[in-house]
Each structure stands twice: as structure tokens, then as C-alpha cells.
Amino acid sequence: MSVADANPITIRAARWPQDLPAAQLLLRHYAEFLVHNPAGPVNICLTDYEKELATLPERYLEPEAVLLLAFREDEAVGCVAIKQRRDRPGSCEMKRLWTEPSTRGAGLGRKLIQAAMDWSRAQGATELLLDTVAEAMPDAVLLYRRMGFVETERHNTNPIPGLLFMKVDLL
């Protein structure tokens, strides 16, 4: 039995309010990475971030949106947020993909993206959208491409310069 088998990862929708502290911790780690990444500080939607963290249960409430959390035993080790795009019927948008450094290289990012795709399909979406700063997250962009995401036109009003817009068809 490998170490990975001894500590399996489970992914599920956040349960509010009990998962709020774990979700906030993961998303603070995400923000810290963006501010201190090797490509230089990136302010990807971090304006009013503390307010966003305080209101996660209202922001990510099914069936309109969800925050998926990955757990290894009782420890939260990753997350991804998905929202339906009411302004773009048939679309969902993926945000805030994060895996803790201790889990990197074990396929957790792929599992979270697949879970986001599955959730989006269950909501009737035919495409999943995202935006990212490729310089700050080259490994994530590589993973997105491996999972079928392709570059697309701007699909939101995110004002951050240098954004890469991507989508994957869910059909």
C-alpha cells in the first residue's frame, strides 16, 4: 500500500458554516502565493478579499455556485470555486483553484478540475470558463491545457493586465 492509498483524498462541496475556517485558510494561502510568486505580485481579484472570505457561504451556495474542498482525512488540502454564469447561459466559471504545496505532484489539481467540470455538467453547463495570469501560474496553465482547455476571448470584466482567458467544452 502506498502513502497516497493510506491517506485518500475526498472532494466535496463546502458545508457552511462548519467548513468556513478551512476554506478561508486555503484561500488565504492562495492569495499569499499570488502576492509572493516568482513572477512578481499578482492582484488577481484580491480587492476586498477579506470581505470575500467572510462571505464565502453567501457567495458559494448551491445550485448557483459551489466551493469544492479536498480533504486528506480531516485536513483541507485544496479547493476550487465554480459559479454559474447567468449572463452567459450554459456556462460556468472556475475560480480560486488551489492545492497545498504538500499535495503537489499527486494529481490533486487534476481531480479538483475534474470535479469542477462534473459539477458544471450537473448544472447543465456546456462550457467551463476561467481566467488566469499565465506568468504567475505556468503549472496551472499547463494542467488546464492537458485537460482540454483552450484560449478564448475575454469573457468577464476582470481588470488585471495580462490575463489569459480559457474554456473547455463539457459536451
From TrEMBL:
Gene3D superfamilies: 3.40.630.30. InterPro entries: Acetyltransferase_Enz, Acyl_CoA_acyltransferase, GNAT_dom. SUPFAM superfamilies: Acyl-CoA N-acyltransferases (Nat). Residues 9-171 form the N-acetyltransferase domain. One of its GO terms (molecular function) is acyltransferase activity, transferring groups other than amino-acyl groups. Pfam families: Acetyltransf_1. PANTHER family: FAMILY N-ACETYLTRANSFERASE, PUTATIVE (AFU_ORTHOLOGUE AFUA_2G01380)-RELATED. This is Carbonic anhydrase.
